Amino acid sequence: MSPDPAATVGNEAARAVHGLSAGADLALLGSCDASALRGELAGAGVHGAATVITGSAAEVLEQLADLAESDPAAVLVVAAADLHLSLPAVLDLLDKPGVRTGVLTATREALESGRDAATRARVGGDGKLVESVGTAVHEVTRPNRALPGLLRVHPADRLAAARTWRAASAEAGGWDVDGFALAVLALVRGQVRVQSVAMGPFTWSRGPVSARGAAGSPWRQRLRGASRGGDGFVSTYAVRPLSRRLTGVGLRLGWSPNAVTVTSLAIGVAAALLVVTDNRWAWVAAAVLIQLALVIDCVDGEIARFTRRFSALGAWLDAVGDRVKEYSVFAACAYVGVRHGADLWLVATAAMALVTLRHLEDYAYDHRLAPTRVSRPDGIPVVAPRDLGPQDARTEFAPEPSARWWRIHWAKKVMHMPIAERYLVISLGLLTFSPQVVLWAIIVSVGAAMVWTIGGRTLKALTGRDGVPPLMTSGTAWGHLDHQTDLGPVARLGGRAMRLPFLATPVAGAVLLVAVVIGARSDRLWIGLVAAVVAALAIGAATRPPIRHTLGWQLPWLLWVAEVVVIAVVAQDRLPARELGVLFAFLAVVAYHRYDTVYRLRDTGEAPAAWLSVLGLGVDGRVIVVLAVATWWPGALEPLLVVGALWLAALYLTESAAGWRRWIRGAAA
After folding, report:
1. Confidence category of residue 474, pLDDT binned at 50, 70, 90
2. DSSP 500
3. Nearest residue to 38 via CA among 3, 83, 8, 104
4. DSSP classification of residue 109
5. Is residue 1 part of a domain?
6. Which of 154, 139, 117 is nearest to 185 (CA)?
7. Of 311, 218, 295, nearest to 256 (Cα)?
8. Do 236 and 174 fall into the same domain?
9. Distance (Å, rounded) from C-alpha 641 to C-alpha 618?
């Protein structure tokens, strides 16, 4: 019988199972009739006879240990026999690349009934690992997840799981606890890494505990869950509802996520080309196309999450494509403004620089917070009745957020100016038919967001209210911040020659900016050149890796702003206003490199090649070269920016493509 079209989503390929748990052993804990559950698991590749395990807590663990030792080469799936859930709900655990040993986890908000009876667990702030589990005899502090009742044990962990379960069984005599909860708790406390695999908005139940999923069939619920969480207000309530409809079409027609990304990029660039025409109806169409590009941009990720087909290349295309679309519109507005006699290239450059600043600051601050979010499972004896949480910590789920909390939450989201809000500002600005309005609207909105965000984060960092403990000051390993500074040969030389306190960096940067402005206004730009050399040496000496200062996370965006301001002041002083498009192009290429560095560190853990800071000169080298040419050969500044943009583009794109290709091949292997 063919599937009901109203109940399914996409074509057969979109719903296909990859077989990552094919041939798995299945253990059913409990004596309930689990035929329906076994049927759903069979759809995920878990075929064959199931081992039904009953008895006391100690007996359950002992039998699990025996089963885990029986065939260490196969995946082991452990399920509560009274669990009811659908095939689409288990795919992210049983059939998703990157999942090793993991357990399904559900949010507190998803529970419709039986919340007090649910198996409570705590997942780390990074959402990766289960840190603690509660049972009838074990307290879990600050629980933030419920365990529906499905566990996957990777073959590489089966023997460790067997040892852990066997050791725990010797301590579990007389315990009247849920066998599944105890099995997971034993793994966590035995230091077997148990990944938290978040359930989407699916309907499921186990005993008195139930969760009502999103509207529609399980496959419709999976489509709803394919939308990324944590989006801004506009994206959550306007863009995503539209993108999911388009994703359903794409899944039915077999669209490739990367092809969708390229399509979104093409539409965004087409919108910029319409802006260049300087026609009112074309601007209306451009405003619409920008929103369409944003909707389509969401589709690629939703298709990838629905089908569980991911690629680092797709993540890179998606991230870089967003910036290309924005920057293209900024450049188009500046071009139209120049045709109307308004010198807007500097304004467009400021808009581009602010958007870049926002992302650099965001990622660097997230990197600062990373140590506080790392999952740290409580590795303690299974007999301990309480985990390692504070004595006064709650052991129940947190209460539901109030309406006031939600209002503040969404207000903060909007104030942060995420991509959907920025695109909306651009589209509304285009409907005024004024390039000045478009660019200044972005500058004002993103600038205000940055003042609010950076100010608040700096205050929290200085007062210790962001929860980050004092950082270590020893060690030699390079970290993400060291790579994001993009320091070149001159600064590195300063770092090898001497050591200065960290605060020498902002002082040197401020002196440089003042010197460049004074030099430009007095026609003595050599003052700025001398200051640039001294500042480069001082900054290098003050930021020797590893960067561990409390305010170290601000370095990437501060150095970016310094480079933009210095080169912009020099270009404005030496070039006609109508020719400052070369300034925008040059800095846009540098911005691409900074984005590429961030996304490679985030997605692959690998930084660009070290030689790139030599051939690309780094922020210090680029500033010094521009100042030197502007000082001694001012007529060569425009050709320098043109040739420099082409050289850097070729250099960065070539190295980036090689780096991503190398990582993708390694991941595939």
Report:
1. very low
2. -
3. 83
4. G
5. no
6. 139
7. 311
8. no
9. 15
Q: Mark whether 269 and 122 lie in a shared domain.
A: no
589 and 444 together in one domain? no
Please identify which residue in the block is written with the tokens 């506009």.
234
Percentage of the chain modeled with pLDDT above 70: 96
Alpha-helical segments (H) within 464-611: 480-484, 489-497, 504-521, 526-542, 555-574, 581-603
| Mean local confidence (pLDDT), 174-203 | 94
Comparing CA positions, the residue from 452, 431, 94, 476 lying closest to residue 281 is: 431
- Sequence-distant (6+) residues with CB within 8 A of 230 are none
pLDDT digit string, tens, across residues 564-617: 999 999 999 899 988 899 999 999 999 999 988 988 888 778 888 889 988 999
Whether residue 439 contacts residue 330, with contact meaning beta carbons closer than 8 Å, is answered with yes
Residue 631 has pLDDT above 90, yes or no: yes
Structure tokens that stand for 613 in this block: 């800071």
Domain membership flag for residue 243: yes
- Closest by CA to 181, choosing from 146, 142, 211, is 146
Spatial strand order in the sheet of 111-113: 83-84, 204-206, 209-211, 111-113
Query: What mean pLDDT, rounded, does the chain reach?
Result: 90
Which of 445, 469, 493 corresponds to the end of one domain? 469
User: For residue 589, which amino acid is it?
Assistant: V
Q: Are 445 and 489 in a shared domain?
A: no
**One domain, residues 233 and 186:** no
Instruction: Reduce the secondary structure of 272-301 to three states and give it as a string.
Output: HHHHHCCCHHHHHHHHHHHHHHHHHHHHHH
Structural domain for 535, as ranges: 472-669
Mean predicted confidence (pLDDT) in 51-55: 92
| 348 and 491 belong to one structural domain | no
Q: Which of 178, 225, 171 is nearest to 198 (CA)?
A: 225
Nearest to 613 by CA among 669, 515, 536, 507: 536
Is residue 211 within 8 Å of 201, Cβ to Cβ? no
When pLDDT is cut at 50, 70 and 90, the band that residue 1 belongs to is very low
Predicted pLDDT at 604: 79
Examine the domain organization and report whether 522 and 548 are in the same domain. Answer: yes
Residue type, 454: I
Q: What is the CATH number of the domain that holds 280?
A: 1.20.120.1760
Residue 452 within any structural domain of the chain: yes
pTM: 0.90
Residue 101 DSSP symbol: S
Task: Identify the pLDDT of residue 47.
Answer: 83
pLDDT over 50 (residue 475): no
Same domain, 196 and 320: no
Q: What angle do CA 418, 423, 428 make, to 5 degrees?
A: 130
**Greatest extent of the chain over all pairs of C-alpha atoms, in Å:** 89
- Interatomic CA distance for residues 559 and 546, integer angstroms: 17
Radius of gyration, alpha carbons of the chain: 28
Using alpha carbons, list the distances in angstroms from residue 241 to 235, 263, 299, 424.
8, 19, 11, 16
| Cα–Cα distance for residue pair 24/45, rounded to 1 Å | 8
> Count of domains in the chain?
3
Buried (b) or exposed (e) across 351-386, using 16+ Cβ within 10 A? bbbbbbbbbbbbbbbebbbeeeeebebbeeebeeeb
Of the candidates 469, 500, 531, which is a domain's last residue? 469
In a domain, 12, yes or no: no
Q: Which CATH number is 652's domain given?
A: 1.20.120
Q: What is the spatial distance between Cα 468 and Cα 471, in angstroms, rounded to a whole number?
A: 8
Where are the strands (E) in 199-276, listed by range? 204-206, 209-211
